[in-house]
Structure formats: C-alpha cells, structure tokens
C-alpha cells in the first residue's frame, strides 16, 4: 500500500516537473517581448488572441503528449516508424532551431544579470551558463531540473502578479475583448502559438515523461492532466504579463522600444519594478536554456547507443556552444530570423506525424485515439502549416535585405 502511495506521489512530482519544464521552456525572452509588443499594438483585443492561442496550444499538447506516452517512444522514433528518415529530418529541424534560440536564451540571461547587478551581459551569460551546466553534472539531473524549473516558474508568476496589481489594468475591458475583440491579428496568433508550443517546446514535457518511465495507456489520465497543467502555467504567465502591460499602456504611457518588457515593469513599479524585471528575465531565460538543451538532445539520443550513454555530456556541450557563440558573435539576427521561420513548420509537421501514428497499431497497439482530438489536431495542423509557410516566405526575404 505504501509503495503504491509513494509511486503515485513520485508520478505527481514528475508530471508537475514535466509541466513546468514545458511551460518554462515556453516562457523565455521572446515570450516576454512578444507579449509586451502585441499588447501595446492591440490593447485589450490581445486577450482574444491569447484565448485562441491557448485553444490551439491545448489541441497540440494533448495530442502529442498522449501519443508519445501510449507509444512509449520519443517523437523522432515515432516519425521514423511512420516514414523512414522522417525522424532524422524532424530531429535536424528541432536541433537547429534549439541551438539558435538557445543563443537568444543565453543572451536573455545575460541581460537579466545586467539589470540586477550591473555586470556586463556577456559575463552574466557565462555565469548563467555555468549554473545551467551544474544541473546536469548532478547524478539526479532529471529531479534537479524539475525542481529548478518549478522554483523559478513560481518566482516568475509571483513577481509578475505583483507588477500586474501595481499597474491597475482595466479588467472589465480585457474580459469583454476576450470574446468581442475590436481587431484581429493572425500574425500575433501564429507568433504566440509558435512561442508556446513551437519547435522543441511541445516535446519538452512529453520526452521528460518517457525518460521518467511514465508511459502506456494506464498513464493517459495523468499525462492529459500534465499536458493541460503545462499550458495552464504558461498561459497564466501570459495573462498576468498581458494585464500588466495593458495597465501601463492604458494610462497613455509609452514603452521603450529598445526593451519594451523592462519599461513595463519600471513604469508600473518604479526601480523595484525594474529589478523585478531582471529577476523575471533571468528566470525566464535560464529555465529556457535548460529546457531547450535537454529537449534538443533528447531528439538525437535514440539514434546511437553512444549518444544515449553520454547524453548529459551532449546537453552540457549544447549549452556551452550556445554560450560561446553569444560571447563571440552576439545574437546572430539573420540566423534567428531564418530559424524562427523554420520553427513555424515544426509544429504542423510533428503534430501531423503524431496524428498518423495514432492510427498505426504497430506504434500504439490497441489504443483508440479520441476522434475529437484527431479533429482539432487536424485543424491545427492545416492552420499552422498555412501560417508557418507564410512566416517562412516573409522570413527568407529579410536575410537578403
């Protein structure tokens, strides 16, 4: 009896860790900036964009987490089972995107330390890199990663909640525009979805569950709750930040275009707010560094027993290379633009593969995937493919400007 209770408690802890890993992977420097900029542009109508993006996020996460869990395989192996070679292509896209975005995450960690302590951003980036590397040097790295993302996730939410209250947003207007927007913006929707479940992010929690041994049909109720919790955590942070920004811009205050989120925190809560921004930015960035490195390497570890045995060294190497590029080159804007555009294609490709896999008995056995999940998943694939191609077509010309 005690063993059963201990197992359930351990599973709950792992599921919460997986949820926070996915959520904090999504809440990075780009998440903070995108939410701030779009709120300034769309005002209260941005609430509708958030609602639509949450519904799409739920459709993607539920499908992907459940199929990964019931098959007991990582996404790249499922893709190779669907079509030989497709898993290698998916892994290439994820690792390329992960490396490029991790350079931005490391830069964000450096910016956070600069705000907090006034030290050079590159020095702060190196110190943050060493902390992230330290997590994977510990024997119980998975448990340490879970705890790290949970603690910093709670810190980010609590501090942003405080800033939201000091900003005094128009709650009634925001609630009304959630269902009756004055203007729509498709680009904002695809950007938010890409930033929350695009690229490597949607697999962060699913692959963590596989590593922890939570799989099979009997685990599906827990897995579904974990997926919904992950979206809930990321969405809560998005809503709090949106309301904080709305409170500031509704007063007619102008944000600094060089660093919009920092100016929101400063305008809402003065110098204390600016320091809070430093904590939130650093927390968002360093947890994204950890989640990105872990998930990107999880896409190649099944291709070789040697890589699998030394996967923690590969994770550490991934973090070190990202930091080295940032310190030497800075943030390679053109690469980030191109990879950001490619990132929009990863979700429809991966989700499409998962939906096909859900109906192949050699992958999922006698599992019957709910038809309503397939339907909303298929709609998401088509919508995100169209928007992803649009993003790519607009991203490539910027490389030649």
From TrEMBL:
Keyword Iron among record annotations: no
> Which terms are listed as keywords in the entry?
Membrane, Transmembrane, Transmembrane helix
Q: How does it sit in the membrane?
A: Multi-pass membrane protein
Would you tell me the protein name for this molecule?
A: Mn2+ and Fe2+ transporters of the NRAMP family
A single Gene Ontology molecular function, please?
Answer: manganese ion transmembrane transporter activity
Pfam families to which the protein is assigned, alphabetical: Nramp
Task: Please give the GO cellular component terms listed in this UniProt entry.
Answer: plasma membrane
Give the stretches traversing the membrane.
12-32, 44-65, 86-103, 115-138, 150-167, 187-206, 227-252, 272-300, 312-329, 335-359, 371-393
- What's the domain of life for this entry? Bacteria
Q: Which InterPro entries match?
A: NRAMP_fam (IPR001046)
Q: Which GO terms describe its biological process?
A: iron ion transmembrane transport
Q: Where in the cell is it found?
A: Membrane
């Amino acid at each position: 009896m005690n063993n059963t209770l201990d197992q359930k408690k351990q599973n709950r802890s792992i599921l919460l860790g997986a949820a926070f890993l996915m959520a904090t992977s999504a809440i990075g420097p780009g998440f903070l900036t995108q939410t701030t900029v779009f709120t300034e542009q769309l005002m209260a109508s941005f609430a509708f964009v958030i609602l639509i993006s949450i519904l799409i996020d739920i459709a993607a996460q539920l499908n992907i987490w459940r199929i990964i869990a019931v098959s007991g395989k990582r996404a790249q192996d499922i893709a190779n089972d669907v079509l030989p070679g497709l898993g290698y292509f998916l892994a290439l896209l994820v690792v390329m995107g992960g490396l490029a975005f991790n350079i931005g995450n490391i830069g964000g960690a450096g910016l956070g330390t600069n705000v907090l302590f006034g030290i050079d951003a590159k020095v702060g980036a190196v110190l943050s890199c060493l902390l992230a590397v330290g997590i994977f040097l510990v024997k119980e790295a998975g448990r340490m990663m879970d705890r790290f993302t949970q603690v910093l996730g709670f810190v980010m939410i609590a501090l942003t909640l405080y800033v939201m209250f000091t900003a005094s947003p128009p709650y009634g207007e925001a609630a009304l525009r959630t269902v009756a927007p004055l203007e729509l913006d498709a680009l904002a929707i695809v950007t938010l979805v890409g930033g929350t479940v695009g690229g490597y992010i949607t697999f962060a929690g699913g692959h963590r569950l596989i590593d922890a041994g939570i799989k099979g049909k009997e685990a599906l109720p827990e897995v579904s709750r974990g997926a919904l919790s992950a979206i809930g955590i990321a969405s809560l942070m998005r809503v709090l930040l949106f309301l904080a920004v709305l409170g500031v811009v509704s007063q007619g205050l102008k944000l600094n275009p060089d660093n919009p989120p920092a100016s929101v925190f400063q305008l809402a809560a003065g110098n204390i707010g600016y320091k809070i921004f430093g904590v939130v930015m650093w927390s968002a960035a360093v947890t994204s560094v950890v989640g990105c490195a872990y998930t990107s390497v999880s896409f190649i570890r099944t291709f070789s027993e040697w890589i699998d045995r030394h996967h923690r060294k590969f994770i550490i190497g991934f973090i070190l290379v990202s930091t080295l590029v940032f310190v030497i080159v800075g943030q390679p804007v053109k690469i980030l633009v191109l990879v950001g555009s490619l990132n929009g294609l990863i979700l429809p490709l991966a989700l499409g593969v998962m939906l096909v896999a859900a109906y192949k008995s050699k992958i999922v056995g006698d599992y019957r995937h709910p038809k309503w999940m397939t339907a909303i998943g298929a709609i998401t694939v088509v919508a995100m493919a169209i928007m992803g191609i649009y993003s790519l077509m607009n991203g490539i010309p910027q490389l030649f400007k």
